[in-house]
Structure to design on (393 residues):
């Protein structure tokens, strides 16, 4: 009886500690169910799911970089303009000057990194507020995009480059041309790997005598995870297979989840955001980490610009408009704190898909862009209010 009494507070404490994480997943599930019913099943159709991934791929990519910037206690308002500028640069190089795709893509990523370094230098070493630096960057690179394009659209891109966003993983199993079995097996393998990693993480936590989630909740969560990933993979591969950009997203998500959770650099980034002075006194090179966070953001903004340009098959003067708002909203909705030091990769991805599903669902229902902006603004405000409430507790 005493063991049960001791176990019950531990379970309650775990749920209170992780309520935001489970709340985001539950919110995504509820929103998807709502729009699935409201759109008469259109949301979960294979073609629409594929479009949903393609439409939000660049937001997810930039959200991974924005998360690290926000965790360090800063913000980057220039990501939309940087993505548009890099896409314009890629178009001029590939279409106008016939630069090979691989060379042009590499140059664009380097340019993105240099832009991030230029902005991070002023923020990290001169202590100029990131809001001011990146606001200036937003204006500068928006103007440079217009200058590079000379006010006109440039395209189409080479077919090889288009496959970055519009290509699909080929079928490797003979006799399965109509159904992409290898892609489905890949999705099941990913789901099982996540379960194994979760079990190992739980065992390691228990060895250190720390509180873990209740057994029933752990089993239920993993069963739902396997079912959700397998079902999603089955639906999306029944159209044309797994999009190439989805594989890029999965690799980046796994990489950044590992860096933030399993490396010294990741722990130091959270320390900088939690208390920069204490981190510096502990020997953490806070300026360097802030600088690298902006460099990383620049590279990912460049990659997102390439993905977006490949999807449109052209570079336009309005590319990247408003991207920064969706990216920042995705991070805050996903649990990142406006005060820094708090946020998870999975949360940022879930936040991005919450925004994406809302955009997609409201568009299917015929809700105008005016009311869409109002609803998204209220959702963002609600997420920040929850963050402020948690901070005050």
């Amino acid at each position: 009886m005493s063991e049960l009494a001791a176990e019950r507070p531990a379970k309650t404490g775990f749920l209170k500690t992780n309520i935001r994480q489970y709340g985001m997943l539950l919110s995504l599930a509820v929103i998807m169910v709502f729009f699935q019913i409201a759109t008469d099943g259109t949301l979960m159709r294979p073609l629409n799911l594929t479009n949903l991934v393609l439409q939000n791929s660049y937001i997810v990519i930039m959200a991974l970089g924005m998360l690290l910037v926000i965790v360090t206690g800063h913000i980057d308002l220039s990501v939309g303009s940087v993505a548009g500028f890099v896409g314009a640069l890629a178009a001029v190089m590939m279409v106008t000057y016939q630069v090979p795709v691989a060379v042009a893509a590499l140059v664009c990523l380097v340019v993105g990194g240099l832009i991030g370094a230029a902005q991070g230098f002023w923020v990290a070493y001169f202590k100029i507020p990131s809001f001011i630096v990146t606001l200036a960057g937003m204006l500068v690179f928006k103007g440079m995009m217009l200058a590079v394009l000379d006010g006109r659209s440039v395209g189409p891109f080479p077919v090889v480059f288009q496959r970055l966003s519009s290509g699909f993983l080929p079928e490797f199993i003979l006799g399965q041309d109509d159904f992409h079995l290898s892609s489905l097996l890949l999705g099941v393998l990913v789901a099982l790997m996540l379960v194994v990693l979760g079990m190992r993480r739980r065992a390691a936590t228990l060895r250190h005598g720390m509180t873990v989630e209740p057994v029933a909740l752990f089993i239920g969560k993993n069963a739902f995870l396997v079912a959700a990933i397998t079902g999603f993979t089955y639906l999306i591969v029944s159209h044309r297979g797994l999009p190439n950009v989805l594989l890029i997203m999965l690799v980046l998500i796994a990489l950044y989840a590992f860096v933030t959770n399993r490396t010294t650099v990741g722990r130091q980034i959270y320390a900088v955001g939690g208390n920069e002075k204490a981190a510096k006194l502990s020997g953490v090179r806070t300026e360097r980490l802030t600088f690298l966070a902006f460099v990383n953001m620049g590279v990912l903004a460049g990659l997102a610009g390439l993905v977006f340009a490949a999807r449109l098959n052209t570079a336009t003067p309005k590319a990247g408009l408003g991207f920064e708002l969706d990216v920042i909203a995705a991070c805050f909705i996903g649990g990142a704190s406006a005060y820094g030091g708090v946020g998870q990769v999975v949360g940022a991805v879930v936040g991005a898909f919450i925004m994406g599903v809302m955009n997609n669902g409201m568009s299917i229902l015929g809700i105008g862009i005016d009311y869409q902006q109002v609803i998204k603004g209220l959702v963002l405000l609600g997420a920040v209010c929850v963050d402020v409430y948690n901070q005050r507790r």
Summary: The CA atoms of residues 67 and 253 lie 12 Å apart.
